[in-house]
Amino acid sequence: MARGAGYWELDAGRARVAAPIAVKGRPMRNPIYDVLFEPVQIGPVTAPNRFYQVPHCTGMGYRYPQSEAAHRGVKAAGGWGVVSTQETEIHETSDLTPSNEARLWDDRDIPALRLMTDAVHEYGSLAAIQLAHNGLHSANRYSRRIPLAPSAVVVDSDDPVNARAMDKSDIASFRRWHVDAARRGKAAGFDIIYVYAGHDMTLLQHFLLQRHNHRTDEYGGSMQNRLRLFREVIADTRDAVGDTCAIAVRFAVEELLGAEGIRHDVEAREVIEALAEEPDLWDVNMSNWSNDSQTSRFAKEGYQEPYTEFVKSVTTKPVVGVGRYTSPDTMVRLIKQGKLDMIGAARPSIADPYLPKKISEGRLEEIRECIGCNICVSGDNTSVPFRCTQNPTAGEEWRRDWHPEIITAPKKTKPYLIIGGGPAGLEAARTLVKAGNDVIIAEASSQWGGRVTVESQLPGLAEWARVRDWRMWQLQQVQNAEMYLDSSLSADDILEYGIANVAIATGSHWRNDGAGRAHRRPLPFLQSDLVMSPDDAMHGGLKQDSGTGPIVIFDDDRFYLGSVLAEMAATTGRAVVFVTPSPIVAPWSTFTLEQHRIQNRLIALDVEIVPNTLLADMDGTQLSLACAYSGKTRQIDCGTFIPVTSRLPNDRLWTDLNARRTDWQDAGLERVTRIGDCYAPGLIAAAVYAGHKYAREAIGGGDTVLREDMNGNV
Ligand code: ADP
Ligand code: SF4
Question: Whose CA is nearest to atom 8 of ligand 1?
Answer without folding.
Answer: 507
